[in-house]
C-alpha cells in the first residue's frame, strides 16, 4: 500500500480487532451490512444489504429496502484473509460515476491467533479533479473512515 504517484495524499486508517485474521476478513466483507454506518449510503431508501461479491471483478453495491440497488464500486483484489481492494466510484455529488475510480485497499495483518490489525488506505483521490482536496478533507474527518472502522471494530469485538 505505497502511494508513489498520487498528487493528493492517501487517507490511511487502522484498527485492531480481537478476532483472527480470517474472521476479521469475513466480518469486513461478508457482513458489511452489520457495521457500515446507515447514514453512509447514496440510495433514497434505507439499506437492506451491502454486498461485496467475493471475487476480483465482483460488484460492491447496496440493496435498499425498496428493492433498488446503488453501486459503490468493484472488487479489484480478493485475497482472503490477507487483502481486499475495491474501487470507490462515488463522486463529490454523492452519486456513482462509471468514469471515477479511486481505490480502497484493506489489509488484514495477523498480530496473534485472536488479534488482527486492519489497515485501510483510500488512494487515487486526484480522480476527484477540482473536488479532490475537499473530498480528502471529507474522508480525513472523524465521521468518515475513522467512524466506519470504529463501527467495524465494535461488531468484530462483539464476535470474539
Would you mind describing this structure in some detail?
The chain is of the alpha+beta class and 160 residues long. The chain has one domain (11-159): Alpha-D-Glucose-1,6-Bisphosphate, Chain A, domain 4 (2-Layer Sandwich), CATH 3.30.530.20. 26% of the residues lie in helices and 35% in strands. It has helices spanning 21-30, 32-35, 132-140, 142-159; strands at 11-17, 47-52, 59-64, 69-79, 83-88, 102-112, 115-123. The protein has a seven-stranded antiparallel β-sheet with strand order 1-7-6-5-4-3-2. A hairpin with a 4-residue loop joins β3 and β4 (69-79). The protein is globular, with a radius of gyration of 15 Å. The relative contact order is 0.24. The model has no long low-confidence stretch (mean pLDDT 93).
What is the mean predicted local confidence, pLDDT? Answer: 93
CATH architecture: 2-Layer Sandwich
Outline the low-pLDDT stretches: none
Number of domains: 1
- CATH topology, by name, is Alpha-D-Glucose-1,6-Bisphosphate, Chain A, domain 4
CATH class value:
Alpha Beta
Q: Structural class of the secondary elements?
A: alpha+beta
What sort of overall outline do the alpha carbons produce when their principal axes are compared? globular
Q: Report Rg.
A: 15 Å
Number of β-strand runs? 7
Sheet with the most strands? 7 strands, antiparallel
Helix content: 25-40%
Supply the number of helical segments. Answer: 4
Task: Enumerate the strands of the largest sheet in spatial order, edge to edge or round the barrel.
Answer: 1-7-6-5-4-3-2
H and E string: EHHEEEEEEHH
Amino acid at each position: 500500500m505505497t502511494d508513489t504517484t498520487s498528487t493528493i495524499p492517501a487517507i490511511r486508517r487502522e484498527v485492531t480487532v480481537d478476532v483472527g485474521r480470517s474472521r476479521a476478513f469475513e466480518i469486513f466483507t461478508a457482513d458489511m451490512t452489520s457495521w457500515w454506518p446507515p447514514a453512509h449510503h447514496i440510495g433514497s431508501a434505507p439499506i437492506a444489504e451491502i454486498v461485496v461479491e467475493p471475487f476480483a471483478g465482483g460488484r460492491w453495491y447496496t440493496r435498499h429496502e425498496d428493492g433498488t440497488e446503488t453501486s459503490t464500486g468493484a472488487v479489484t483484489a480478493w485475497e482472503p484473509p490477507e487483502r481486499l481492494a475495491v474501487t470507490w466510484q462515488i463522486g463529490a455529488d454523492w452519486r456513482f460515476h462509471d468514469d471515477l475510480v479511486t481505490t480502497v485497499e484493506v489489509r488484514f495483518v495477523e498480530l496473534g491467533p485472536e488479534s488482527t490489525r486492519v489497515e485501510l488506505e483510500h488512494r487515487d483521490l486526484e480522480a476527484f479533479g477540482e473536488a479532490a482536496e475537499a473530498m480528502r478533507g471529507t474522508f480525513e474527518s472523524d465521521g468518515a473512515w475513522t467512524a466506519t472502522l470504529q463501527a467495524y471494530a465494535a461488531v468484530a469485538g462483539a464476535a470474539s
